[in-house]
Structures are given as C-alpha cells and as structure tokens.
Design brief:
With 349 residues, the protein is an all-alpha fold. It contains 15 helices and no strands. The two termini are 22 Å apart.
Length: 349
C-alpha cells in the first residue's frame, strides 16, 4: 500500500539504517545469484539446526517485503556468517554487530505493522471501522516507546506514529472514521473522542431522518400514480358526512403532526442501539446487522452505506495487478469486454 511505503521511506531516513540496509541487500543478492552459496547455506543450516529457509529479496512495490527480508537475515545470521567466513571475496559482506543491532531495531518496529496492514487490506470483511481502533492501538501499545527500546527504535516508532496521526488528522477523514466505527456494533462510540461524541450522534440522527424521508418519498410515488388514475375516473358526489371532517386530517397537517413522532422514533432507535452491549470483536458485524435490521431499520441502512468502504487501496491495486497479468504482449488483441470477464474470473478464483 502506497501510504505505508511513504511511512517506511520517512522512518528510514537515517545514516545508520542506510548502511545496514545496504549490507543486508548485498548479502541477499550474493546468495540469490550463486547456486554454490545456496547449497553451502543449506548445509550450514542443517549443521546448526536452523530452519532451512531461503533468503528473501525486497520488492520496491511491496513495503512488507523489506521487513520480511530483514527478519530472514536475522534468523539466518549465524549461517550467513559461517558461509561468508570461508569466502575470501565476499567476507566483507558479513554484517557487523552494529548492523545487526540496527536491523533488529527496524524489525522490532516494523513487524507489528505487517500483521495489521494485512488485516486492513482484506476484501471479504468490514475493514474501515478498524482504522480508528488500530490507530489507538498503535499509539497506546504496539508502537508506544518502551523503556528497553534503543534510541533508533524509539525514533522509528515516533516517526511512524507521527506520520499516521498526521495523515488521518483532517476533520472530514476523522468524521468518516468516527461514523464507520460508531455503526460497527463491535466498537460503537468506544474509540470516538469525548468531544466528538455529541456531533457524531447528531449526524447519525440527521442521516437517519434523511433515510426516513427518502423512504417516505419512495412509498408515496406509487400512490401518486393511483391518484392520477383515480382523477380520470368519474367523480362521485360528496356524502353529507364529508363536510364535517376536521381540517387537521389534511396532508400538510398530518405531516406536521407526525414530525415530533418521527424525531422521537429516531432518538429512541439511536439510544437503544448505543446503550445495547457491544458485539464480540471477532464476530461479523454484517451478520449482526442482517439479524438486527428489524430493530434498527434506519441505522441498518446507514451501516450498509458506511461499512462497505474499504480501509485501504489494496483492492484497486490488486485489480491493476490482475489486469497486468491478463493483458500481456501475447494477448494485446483482447477486446475490453473479454478483459473485464477475465479480470473478474481471476479475482474470484
């Protein structure tokens, strides 16, 4: 994801990190392009009872690949040092203890991000409502500075958290994330700041009222057709009792009289939802809304509107990657409709 690539570049602006990353890449390259070193690495892994894993190469477009490369080098550092010690030409590539310390600090800071970004990049479940809880977790525990952290680890964590907080700090984004979190029965207003709860409740009430008005308009539309058909029919004489009906039963008066009842129904529905217990964090909120929409009809419509938003751009990036795999130099004559079908099939396999 682009945002985490930017975060990584900002956090890695340090001379010590630049040197350690350069050594790490050269080590991986030396083993990747030599079948002899690969064989020697496997022999040393067996002798040292280390996992028989190959080294990983960093991919510029996949930010998590850097952490994966560093983690694998740290895992196999003893085997790597043993192989390089017997190679006079590449012995200088052996990471020093300073480089190992830097790589450990980077790995400790980045490894939590990998798990969370993978979870936020999914397409088969609700993800947007997890953004606020994830940011809160980063600030309070996952990326919080610990006493045993080195100065470099502290600096990396502070840069990452600072960039994330600044990225999501604008008012429209905060309001969107607060609305999505409030409409998720697992969180509701738990991660909405105290000074924003009142405004979020007001916006929920306002949008619920809008939903009700639109539903009323849709319900009135068929009746208008019926009235038009009735207007063409022969008029009947008014009965004597029709002259004694009270004026308050008119259309305008009825809608005015029902207004307080609508506002009361909206307030009761919202308060009932907010005061009810929260759902288990591993449960599916969409299944919960499917069952509970009869109790919260207006809120369920809002939930469908907000909870369908993806938390990241990974979905669109996957479509572009799939499109690149479908439309190649050998398949350049495919028609657009056929490309769409093939991409759709590839995405749903």
């Amino acid at each position: 994801m682009f945002i985490f690539i930017v975060i990584l570049e900002n956090a890695m602006k340090d001379q010590r990190i630049g040197r350690a990353m350069g050594v790490c890449k050269k080590v991986v390259s030396a083993f990747s392009y030599s079948w002899k070193k690969k064989r020697e690495l496997k022999d040393v892994q067996k002798r040292m009872n280390l996992p028989e894993h190959s080294l990983k190469t960093e991919c510029p477009t996949r930010w998590g690949s850097r952490q994966a490369m560093i983690s694998r080098v740290l895992e196999q550092q003893k085997a790597i040092a043993d192989v390089l010690y017997n190679d006079t030409k590449n012995r200088h590539l052996t990471p020093s203890w300073q480089d190992i310390d830097v790589l450990e600090a980077i790995n400790k800071s980045l490894s939590p991000l990998v798990e969370f970004t993978d979870a936020l990049s999914g397409e088969q479940y609700v993800s947007v409502s997890f953004v606020k809880p994830t940011l809160h977790l980063f600030n309070t525990s996952i990326l919080a500075v610990q006493e045993d952290d080195t100065d470099l680890a502290k600096s990396i964590k502070q840069k990452i958290v600072g960039y994330l907080n600044e990225k999501y700090n604008d008012a429209p984004t905060q309001e969107l994330l607060d609305m999505a979190s409030a409409l998720d029965p697992r969180f509701k207003l738990t991660y909405v700041s105290e000074d924003m709860r009142g405004s979020i409740e007001k916006r929920l009430s306002s949008e619920m009222k809008t939903v009700m008005e639109k539903a009323s308009e849709r319900a009135v539309t068929p009746a208008d057709d019926t009235d038009a058909a009735a207007a063409t029919a022969p008029k009947k004489k008014k009965a004597l009792g029709s002259f004694f009906k009270p004026v308050t039963e008119g259309t305008a008066s009825t809608s005015t009289a029902l207004q307080p009842d609508q506002d009361k129904a909206i307030a009761l529905e919202l308060q009932s939802y907010l005061q009810a217990g929260t759902l288990d964090t591993e449960a599916d909120p969409l299944e919960w809304w499917k069952v509970s929409q009869q109790f919260y009809p207006r809120l369920s419509n809002l939930a469908r509107r907000y909870l369908c938003i993806p938390a990241t751009s990974s979905s669109s990036e996957r479509v572009f990657s799939t499109g690149g795999n479908v439309v190649t130099c050998l398949r350049s004559s495919l028609k657009p409709d056929q490309v769409n079908r093939l991409v759709f099939l590839a995405k749903n396999l």
